[in-house]
Amino acid sequence: MKTIQSEHYSIHIGNDSFPELSNYLSEKKYSSVFILTDENTKKHCLPIFKKISGLRHQASVIQIKSGEKNKNLSTCEKIWKALSNANAGRNSVLLNLGGGTITDLGGFCASTYKRGIDFINIPTTLLAQVDASVGGKTGIDFYNFKNQIGTFAFPKAVCVNPVFLKTLMERELLSGYAEVLKHGLIADRSYWKELLSSSPENFRKEKGERLIRHSIAIKNNIVASDPFEKGLRKALNFGHTIGHAVESASMKSKKHLLHGEAVAIGMICETYLSRKCCGLSSEELQESASLIISVFHPEKIKHSPQELIRLMQQDKKNREAEINFTLLSSIGKAEINNSCTNELIEESLRYYDGLVS
Ligand SMILES: NC(=O)c1ccc[n+]([C@@H]2O[C@H](COP(=O)([O-])OP(=O)(O)OC[C@H]3O[C@@H](n4cnc5c(N)ncnc54)[C@H](O)[C@@H]3O)[C@@H](O)[C@H]2O)c1
Ligand SMILES: [Zn+2]
What we know:
- Helices cover 48% and strands 18% of the residues.
- It has helices spanning 18-28, 39-44, 46-53, 73-85, 100-112, 126-132, 170-187, 189-196, 208-225, 240-251, 259-277, 282-296, 305-313, 342-356; strands at 2-5, 10-13, 32-38, 59-64, 92-98, 118-123, 137-142, 145-152, 157-160, 325-330, 333-338.
- A hairpin with a 2-residue loop joins strand 7 and strand 8 (145-152).
- The longest helix is centred in the last third of the chain and has 19 residues, at 259-277.
- The chain starts with a strand and ends with a helix.
- Bound molecules: nicotinamide-adenine-dinucleotide and zinc ion.
C-alpha cells in the first residue's frame, strides 16, 4: 500500500488499504458506522469490503438507487432520514462505498447532517478513484444543473482499492479514463505520452495501481495549491465548461451521457479553443483529438450550439457574464481564466462534429 498525504487527510492506495481504515475507525471510537451503497456497489463491492477490511464495527448499510439521475435532493432526504432513524449522532461516520455519485452525495449529506459528521470515501469506479473521491468537493444536481448545490468538505480518509474495477462495466471504466487523459493534458506531458500507447483496460491490470496513484497525485497537487478553487485549481476544469453543458443537456434527453463521455467531447472542443486562443500547436491539437476519438468513438452532439452556450452561461465557474475556460498552451500545461467569443465556441462545436461524421 502507498499513501498520498493531502493537507487534511490521507489517501491510501492499494489492495491492502482496508486494514488501515479498520484501524483508523477503531482509534476514533465512532459511536456508529454507516455504509452508503447503491444496488450495484452493495452487490459487487460490499462483500469484498467486508471480507478484506476486517471491520470490527457493526455497520448499518444505507442503500440508495444508482446513477446520476438520483444525485438529487430527494435522495439526500432518504439518507438524512436513515441517519436520523438510527439516531446517528455527531460522533458517527459515513463510509461512502461507490462511484462519484455516492461520494458526492454521501459527502454532501455527511457535511450537512447535524452541521457535519465525519465521512470516508471508498471509491469503486475509476472516475471516483482518480477524481471524485479526492479534493473535497461534494454536491448534488438541482434543476437540471450539475452540482448546483454542494459544499467543500474533506473526507477523513480515502481508501482506493483497484480490485473494485474488475466488476465495473466497460462504459464506466472509459468514463473515468476521460479524467485520466485530462490529468496528462493539463499537467504531465510524459504521463500523456504513456497514455498514448496505453489502454483503459490497463487500469484493471497489475499496472493499474501505479497509474491510479499517478493520476491521484496530479489531482492532489493541484488541489493542494488551491483547495477552494480561487485560481490554480481551475486547471482541473479543462474540458468541463463545454463538457458540463453537453452533460446537462443530455440529462434532459433520452440518451444520457456519462460524465466522462461528456468531458471527452468537451476536451476535444476545448483543445480546439486552445489552438485558437492559447497557442496550442496544430500537431498537439490533432494528437489529442485523435486519441480521444479513438478511445471514446463519440457521436455528434444532439443539442444546438445556442442551447449549449445558454447552459455554459449559467455555469458557476463564470465570473459575471463571461464563460470561463481552462485551456492548454501545450500538452501538459494548462492556462486558467480564458474567455472565448460565442462564435469561436460554436466553431469548436462544429470542429468536433466534423471529426465524428
Ligand atoms: N466531487 C468531485 O470532485 C467530482 C469529480 C468528478 C466527478 N464527480 C461526479 O462523479 C459522478 C460520476 O461518478 P461515476 O462515474 O463514478 O458514476 P456512478 O457513481 O454513478 O457509478 C456508475 C455506475 O457504476 C456502478 N458501480 C460503481 N462501482 C462499481 C463496481 N465496482 N462494479 C460494478 N458497478 C459499479 C454504480 O452503481 C453506477 O451504476 C458525477 O456525478 C460527477 O459529477 C465529482
Ligand atoms: Zn470531471
